[in-house]
Each structure stands twice: as C-alpha cells, then as structure tokens.
Amino acid sequence: MLRCVLRAKIHIATVTESNLSYEGSITIDEVILKKAGILPYEQVMISNLNNGERFETYVIPGKKGSGEICLNGPTARKGIVGDKIIIFSYSYIEDSKIKQFKPRIILLDSDNKILNVK
User: So which residues are the catalytic ones?
Assistant: First the structure.
C-alpha cells in the first residue's frame, strides 16, 4: 500500500512579494528549494499563518540567495508581503519504507535565510 506523507517542509517563510499580474505559482529562492529537495514546477501546499488560508500551487525557482518568496497570480490573493507561511511537499511511500523515512524540514529566519535543516 502507498501512503501520502510529508516529504519536505519549508517552515515559516516570510512572503517578500505578491504579484497578481503573474500567471500563477509561488517563486522560492533556489537555494531554499535545493535544500528542501523540491523541484521546479513541483506541486506544493501552502498554509498562511496570518490569515489561515491553505492552498496548492506549483513552484518556480527564484534567484539564488535572494530569500525570495513570492505569491504569483491568483495565489497573490491568499497572502500579502510580510505574511508567514509554511510550504509542504508530499510524496507517496510504500508502507514497508515509512519507518525508515524522514521528511526534510527547512527552518528559516525572518529574512528567509536557512537556520537549520532537519
């Protein structure tokens, strides 16, 4: 049996831009993406700590080392600059491998710099 489990989490990122005129997605600093193991155009779920919104979109890599976290297109309506969000990536894993599996958790500071990788 396959189970859907948390594969990666970017914990408490700060929204740096909200761009309604873009066609859609979330832009995330490429350094953060690589540390989390999230690929460009991968589906993610986002939870906004400021307003309770929870939504899905796909990832676009942002400029390396920029700390960029930008809500684009319709997702720009789900948060504003300064909001704190959590970004989740899920994967299907065989039951037999779940006990050995551990998600990658990236903790960010208020400038979206990596504090810790768990």
Answer: 25, 58
Please state the pTM of the whole predicted model.
0.96
The string of pLDDT tens digits covering residues 63-115 is 999 999 999 999 999 999 999 999 999 999 999 999 999 999 999 999 999 99
Q: How far is 104 from 118, CA to CA, in rounded Å? A: 6
Compute the distance between CA of residue 52 and CA of residue 63 in angstroms, rounded to an integer: 28
Residue 74: other Cβ atoms inside 10 A: 14
Question: Looking at the 3D structure of the chain, how many domains does it have?
Answer: 1
Tell me the residue range of the domain where 18 lies.
Answer: 2-94+103-111
3-state secondary structure string across the chain: CEEEEEEEEEEEEECCEEECCCCCEEEEEHHHHHHHCCCCCCEEEEEECCCCCEEEEEEEEECCCCCCEEEEHHHHHHCCCCCEEEEEEEEEEEHHHHCCCCCEEEEECCCCCEEEEC
